[in-house]
Amino acid sequence: MAIRVLALDLERTLIDDALSGRPRPGLYSFLAYCDERSERVAIYTTVEEADAREVVADLLRSGHMPTALYDRLEFVAWSGEHKDLAFVADAAPNEVVLVDDDEGWIRADQSEQWIAIAAWDGGPDGELIRARAELERRYEATRTS
Question: Which CATH number is associated with domain 5-144?
Answer without folding.
Answer: 3.40.50.1000
